[in-house]
Amino acid sequence: MTDKNIAVKVDHVSKYFRLPTESTHSLRTAMVNRFKGIKGYTEQHVLRDINFEVAEGDFFGIVGRNGSGKSTLLKIISQIYVPEKGKVTVNGKLVSFIELGVGFNPELTGRENVYMNGALLGFSTDEIDAMYDDIVDFAELKEFMNQKLKNYSSGMQVRLAFSVAIKAQGDVLILDEVLAVGDEAFQRKCNDYFLERKTSGKTTILVTHDMAAVKKYCNRAVLIEDGLVKAYGEPFDVANQYSFDNTEQVVDDKAEQDDSQAAAETKAAQVDNLQVKLLSKSRIRPDEKIKFAISYDVLDDTPTYIALSLTDIDRNIWVYNDNSMDYPTAGKGHKTVTYECDLSALNDIKVKLEVTVRDENEQMLAFSSAAHTPVILLNRTDIQADDKSALDSASGLIQRNGSWEFTE
């Protein structure tokens, strides 16, 4: 790729902030501390050697958890911050929309705010004249443009601010967490605009926590974690890495609550040391088998059965379970079971496994909470992210198709 084809180049960028550790109002004290090597501040490194390129015409996604450094990176690209190391090169006019409504004045009319905000973005009056009708039409606020902004509802202000950003005729558009703006009808309108922009050849950089949006709109993406590039390239791979990391955290956070709820439902300990181990890969395609091992200790002669379920984490519903209780284990001692099944009817879904050990009366004897069970991501890159036919065609639970293998 030549420099002429690059819209934005982030070249080994690092950024830190100095956080004061002590306050001094004396020049003498400050000089003494300096000679002693006491800086009076610590350095918080927010970005560490960030390096990637956005090609002309890319719909490029930047993802990462809160505090990962995304906002700082955007402000460097937008020339609000200056990096300590490295540089950012932008070819063409940049329109940056980092915060909704920044630069708007409530005492001015909607029309005046459009011209003022356009001027802040670097457009001349003639250029704003040419864009004005498109901005107003998209915001659907034609009859309100001569009213002061302070008389607008919050939704109207959001629509106007967002419309100025996306309808401004810049070469590179940066959007930060703006996919939830406006009401449902306006969101559908924005969706149509993004799909149109994706094929327009214009460059867009989208920062979001919505992995479905990354897969739907973006053709390239980068994952920032703790100020470093963790994944870079195909949006499916980047989004799945983010989802996998984030899902593990969510599952761990809920583990203690799940344990306490399960403990209240179980009988006096007749089963101990329940363990679940994923034997297949943690991220698989739907046409691959999910396989895991279950082991536990039975403390008396109670016959035991295993019941299990796979739950869609995002929707919090079961997509598969096996509680047939067809395969008991008898006698005390250590029990080991392997189970294999598939979810070939599903795609682009995060599931967690939950396992219980029960007696012949279906009373719960042990429960494997979210903290102890694997998280499995299904993904097929040959199916478009917005193609939900596989999931929608599944009425209720996937038909049980698993196989058990017991080892005493």
TrEMBL record:
Keywords: ATP-binding, Nucleotide-binding, Transport. PROSITE patterns: ABC_TRANSPORTER_1 (PS00211), ABC_TRANSPORTER_2 (PS50893). One of its GO terms (molecular function) is ATP hydrolysis activity. One of its GO terms (cellular component) is membrane. It comes from the Bacteria. InterPro entries: AAA+_ATPase, ABC_transporter-like_ATP-bd, ABC_transporter-like_CS, ABC_transpr_TagH-like, Bact_Polysacc_Export_ATP-bd, P-loop_NTPase. It holds the Pfam family ABC_tran. Belongs to the ABC transporter superfamily. This is ABC transporter ATP-binding protein.
